Amino acid sequence: MAHAGSAGTGGAGLAGGAAGGTTAAAGAGNGGTGGAQNGGVGGISGGGGIASAGGGSGGGATCPKPAGQICHEFYANDNSRNELHHVNEFEPAKSWVVKVGDTGANSARGIQLVDNQQAKTKQAVLVSVDKGFVEFDVVDGAELNRVNAFGSVTSALRVPSDATTQLPAGTTILARDLAPSELDFVDSKGVSVAPAAKLGFAGGTEIRKLERNPANGNLTFTKYESDTAAYVYEVTEQGSLLAKLKLPVGSKGYNALWRDGGNLLAASGSPCTILSLDSKGTVLGTLGGKNQFPAAGGGFIFSDVFSGIQLLPNGNVVVANWLGHVDASKHADTPELLEISAENQLVWSWGNQAAAALITYGYVVR
Q: What is the DSSP string of 109-146?
């Protein structure tokens, strides 16, 4: 559904956004928006691999939307239809959708681009599924590798081959929603390469997406522990507790990302906000919120649960608007991925019930 770009009607915005100027992007997109585009250095395109600006070029391709509108290429997980979507708005013919080959709400959740020598471009997209993880070719979605010897897997994270890890090259860390929650460390065939880490300090259920600090290898994840208690945890690569930050009451969480300066970004879940937190968990600012962004047909874009988030190089945040707590068929035109600027303006969106059912996480590559 196309609609006009819109500024949020509330929200404090986020402190400490990306440095740089502001570029304008007015008009409506294909399942997306126009509106003011908050830019990092050089706007949204550049060496970070996130290319855009309507009518401009990105990765050698031109955005086919009218000038001033935004195109993205991205991956998105649908945990209702158990699908992985690759959407290329620059070259729509190169888009594809595949079944992830596993069922249940955990299939699929996390998304990560990884090296894979079997892939046509030596790169694959790794997604977590309930029984483990699957790697698909980025070009056409062909399945390259599958690990399915586990259960209750809610996230899969491939570690890099650098000095920040003590794990063998190619190790994938699995987060599992057990009692207690657990981290497993496996190779490409699912064979254990290190003892599992039992996270007995983290109560409740619903451990969600692992994120990794590229500076030191530490991990974050969120846990929903009761109706009044949800937390961001920071642990070492081996699973030892470093920090426990309580999210505001009513939050659920999905993933938490490091920002320059040691702060974190986290989605709140049902409140439909994105929180900027300092190292002690103090809320420094928020984005989003219910009834914030005007819809094309009047009223506001419906928001159910903000789940997975991605911080773009320009300081904008892409968040999944998961519709799993309502009858999604009654929200047929509600977009499922939203891009929000640091000024709490909606600058792009994608999705409806014809495209996908329940998007838990989106990952923009350009």
A: --EEEEE-TTSTTSEEEEEEETTEEEEEETTT--EEEE
Return the number of other C-beta atoms located less than 10 Å from residue 158's C-beta: 21
**Of residues 362, 338, 341, 361, the one with CA closest to residue 3:** 338
CA-wise closest residue to 185 among 202, 161, 209, 169: 169
Query: Which domains does the chain carry?
Result: 106-209 (2.40.128)
* Dist CA 236 CA 333 (whole Å): 42
Distance from the Cα of residue 132 to its chain's centroid: 19
Model's pTM, two decimal places?
Answer: 0.85
Q: Tokens representing 72?
A: 């993205």
Neighbours of 40 (CB within 10 A): 23
List beta partners, residue 125. Answer: 113, 136
Tokens of 183: 């981290």
Instruction: For residues 16 and 342, give the distance between their C-alpha atoms in angstroms, rounded to a whole number.
Output: 9
CB proximity list for 179: less than 8 A, separation 6 or greater: none
Report the 10 Å Cβ neighbour count for 229: 14
Task: Give pLDDT tens digits along the chain (366 positions).
Answer: 333 344 444 445 554 433 322 222 323 333 333 333 322 222 222 222 343 333 333 456 899 999 989 999 999 999 999 999 999 999 999 999 999 999 999 999 999 999 999 999 999 999 999 999 999 999 999 999 999 999 999 999 999 989 999 999 999 999 999 999 999 999 999 999 999 999 999 988 789 999 999 999 999 999 998 888 999 999 999 999 999 999 999 998 899 999 877 899 999 999 999 999 999 999 999 999 999 998 888 899 999 999 999 999 999 999 999 998 888 778 888 999 999 999 999 999 998 888 999 999 999 999
